[in-house]
Amino acid sequence: MNNTFDFGRFSKVFAYDIHKSVQNYGISFIVLAILPLLTPVLYGMLSLFFNFDWQVPGLIARCVIFILAVACVSLTFAPGVYGKITDKRYGSEYLMIPASSFEKFLSMTLITAVIVPLVFTIAYGLVDLLAIGVSLAEGTPLLKFFVQNWVIAEDGAAVQMGWIITLGLMLNTLVILLGSIYFKKFKIGKTILASFAVSTVLSFIMVPLFNMIIGNPDMLTIVAEDVEEWIFSHADKIELYLNAFIDVTYLVQYSVILVLTYIRVRTLKH
After folding, report:
1. CA–CA separation, 75 vs 188, rounded Å?
2. How far apart are CA 24 and CA 6, in angstroms?
3. Rounded Cα–Cα distance for residues 169 and 258 (Å)
4. Is residue 152 within a helix (H) or strand (E), and if so which, with residue range?
5. Which long-range contacts (CB under 8 A, 24 or more apart) does 27-34 make?
6. Of the candidates 36, 81, 38, which has an alpha carbon nearest to the alpha carbon of residue 59?
């Protein structure tokens, strides 16, 4: 039997995680998913108070509400479901699950970064469609809007904006997951502070390099000319290189976060 990965063991820990997700976060998930039916009432009351006219949310307002709902899910799902792993009683139960560290790691990352955001987006989009159908909202359905604007093209370069946003969302949920299974208390706050600290350190590392280039007019001119020459000489492939650069940037970040998460799951003890 493979001690690293066995589909039978993985299916059991995956089912366990799904059950705990529904048990610990099901109500919150449903409330956030039906916001398209709840927020029009508040929106209408505010519009009635300020404009003396009952109005329903349009596309922009619905997009803002959806972004806030997704942010809420990203920030609260992992602490609500996997944050208890650091608790001695629940954590001991989790450690007793007959599965390898890799299987537990794979299950929690798939559920947190892929399944929950995907299911929530579809559920929210369907409820949004229902809200439009019963005249509680107006404008293009969110799911249709997202599909139509998946790729943004400008000056011959098509940037897969939908893919960029999706990768960014998944990365943020994984960062929160890492903080949830690492910190014992104040998980969201400490994770945000830790992320800010890492960004600050990286900024301090990069600032001297930028200052060296900007502070030297000759070097700045040389770099600008080289960049301009490279862009013109690769104009036919600029779209490929731009998207590849974005993908590589995310790949590096994902690798760091996933490795740290796996190490934490493997070394978790009570």
Report:
1. 7
2. 27
3. 15
4. strand 152-154
5. 28/76, 28/80, 29/73, 29/77, 29/116, 29/120, 32/69, 32/72, 32/73, 32/120, 32/124, 33/69, 33/120, 33/123, 33/124, 33/127, 34/127
6. 36
CA nearest neighbour of 37 among 137, 139, 141 = 137
Which one has a higher pLDDT value, 216 or 120? Answer: 120
Here the tokens at position 36 are 């398209």
Per-residue model confidence as pLDDT tens digits over 92-108: 778 888 889 999 999 99
The one-letter code for the residue type at 52 is F
From residue 94, give the alpha-carbon distance in Å to each of 68, 106, 143, 152: 31, 14, 37, 44
pLDDT score recorded for residue 136 = 80
Contacts of 4 (CB under 8 A, 6+ apart): 100, 102
Residue of 214, 180, 196, 220 whose CA lies nearest to 90: 180
- At residue 128, the pLDDT reads 92
Q: Are 162 and 150 in contact (CB under 8 A)?
A: yes
Residue 180's nearest CA partner among 111, 252, 102 is: 111
First to last CA, the chain: 27
pTM of the model: 0.81
φ/ψ (deg, to 5) at 77: -65, -55
CA–CA separation, 41 vs 55, rounded Å? 9
What is the average pLDDT across 177-203? 87
Decide: residue 65, CB within 10 A, 0-12 exposed, 13-18 middle, 19+ buried.
buried
Alpha carbons within 13 angstroms on the beta-carbon side of residue 90 total: 13
